[in-house]
From TrEMBL:
It is an enzyme of class 4 (lyase). It comes from Rhodanobacter spathiphylli B39. NCBIfam families: hemH (TIGR00109). PROSITE patterns: FERROCHELATASE. GO terms for molecular function: ferrochelatase activity; metal ion binding. This is Ferrochelatase.
Length: 395
């Protein structure tokens, strides 16, 4: 019987002298063998996530995962754990479920079906613009399913070796995009052979994105007429995060300014505010609820609201703005508050995101306009045959 050290030595010698195996299967059902499949590129869209049903029972685990994320709530962990489990998760799920029930459709949560529709439309647009390219567009949710990990593993099983991660947040915040980056990093850490990776940090000032926002607002105005003012409401974050370096506030204002210039509005006609405050801490301000009340009190009767921080409609736009804040506005003397829908799967958004993807994947052969999948595959097969020949001692 060899001793332990001898066994280890034998292992090392065996492994290092083993013939090169290019058909190693690292993940169940996934072959890395280039003879089996050509290299694919993937685009992973990531949105926040949403409960599986508008019930307190389904909302609770969703909130538990979301609010336990240290990127979202920066408090000492033990203190926050006590507050979260002792107070928030006892009270909030019921309240949130009630709000979700108001926007839940036959297709389920708007955030989910809106994100899925956008994924399908973007896949089709990229296929239209790059017909030869083997590009896969997939969707993950930061909280809930499909998780970032599940989505990346599935893409790898499909042969994706180059991956562009595109969080569906136009403005970067550590609480949103930063957290997606964490989830990607946690996944990559555990993969034996991670894909080549790129990540879009933000697209808050991307000209195509601004153009898409402007056109969708103009299209909506053409169909419904124009209000006296346009309010842009962005999701808030604690103000403390801004002071500690989070660029979110500045990026929201940059988006608003670019959109205002493109729509040729003056500073009185376009107002910016921040919504969705949670807890007692001071968040980015002015707050949306206080702003709509103030505007009504100042005599504005017809107010249009758009939410350029949300790629697809969700609880925060359909319930908080289009219902809750409409009631606040009318309660304070306003006549109508009209919510202008998010870009969702509109052609404007699909065109802008397709252009963004093509820009961020420059240099990747799969995305090149003259990519020749058949030629690439032949080259890879020839390389594979040569490796096989070397293994067999033919060369
Ligand atoms: C408590 C802290 C929160 C921070 C910070 C935060 C930042 C943040 N959120 C979004 C986008 C969305 N948030 C949504 C819902 C939502 N957000 C919070 C809390 C924080 N968000 C909670 C508790 C909830 C759940 C609903 C509720 O109980 O009020 C959604 C909608 C999800 C849906 O299912 O429709 C989105 C989208 C961004 C972009 C952001 C930072 C910039
Ligand atoms: Fe949020
Ligand atoms: Fe909200």
């Amino acid at each position: 019987m060899p001793g332990l050290w001898q066994t280890r030595l034998i292992d090392v010698v065996t492994i290092t002298t083993m013939p090169f195996r290019n058909n190693y299967t690292g993940l169940a059902g996934y072959s890395h063998d280039p003879d089996v499949q050509p290299v694919q590129a993937g685009v992973l869209l990531v949105n926040l996530g949403t409960p599986t049903a508008p019930t307190a029972r389904a909302v609770r685990p969703y909130l538990a995962e979301f609010l336990a994320d240290p990127r979202v709530i920066e408090y000492p962990r033990w203190l926050w754990w006590l507050i979260l489990h002792g107070v928030i998760l006892r009270v909030r799920p019921k309240r949130s479920a009630h709000a979700y029930a108001k926007i839940w459709g036959t297709r389920g949560s708007p955030l989910r079906f809106g994100s899925e529709a956008l994924t399908t439309a973007l896949q089709a647009e990229i296929a239209r613009q790059r017909p030869q390219a083997p590009v896969k567009v997939a969707l993950a949710m930061r909280y809930g399913e499909p998780s970032v990990r599940q989505a990346i593993e599935e893409l790898q099983r499909e042969g994706v070796r180059r991956l562009l991660v595109l969080p569906l947040y136009p403005q970067y915040s550590g609480t949103s995009t930063g957290s997606v980056l964490d989830a990607v990093a946690d996944t990559i850490k555990q993969l034996r052979w991670p894909p080549e990776l790129r990540l879009v940090n933000d697209y808050h000032d991307d000209p195509a994105h601004i153009e898409a926002l402007a056109r969708s607002i103009e299209r909506w105005w053409a169909a419904h007429g124009r209000g006296e003012k346009l309010l842009l409401s962005f999701h808030g974050i604690p103000e403390r995060y801004l002071h500690e370096g989070d660029p979110y506030f500045c990026q929201c204002h940059a988006t608003a300014r670019l959109l205002r210039e493109r729509l040729q509005l003056d500073q009185q006609q376009l107002v910016v505010s921040f919504q969705s405050r949670v807890g007692r801490e001071r968040w980015l301000h002015p707050y949306t609820d206080a702003t709509v009340r103030r505007l009504a009190a100042e005599g504005v009767r017809k107010l249009d609201v758009a939410c350029p921080g949300f790629a697809v409609d969700c609880l925060e736009t359909l319930e908080e703005i289009a219902m809750q804040n409409r009631d606040f506005f009318i309660g304070a003397g306003g006549e109508t508050l009209r919510y202008i829908p998010a870009l969702n799967d509109s052609q404007e958004q699909v065109d802008a995101l397709a252009a963004l993807v093509l820009r961020h994947t420059q240099g990747w052969p799969e995305f090149a306009a003259d990519y020749d999948a058949a030629g690439q595959r032949q080259r890879r097969i020839r390389a594979g045959q040569r490796a096989t020949a070397i293994r067999a001692g033919d060369e």
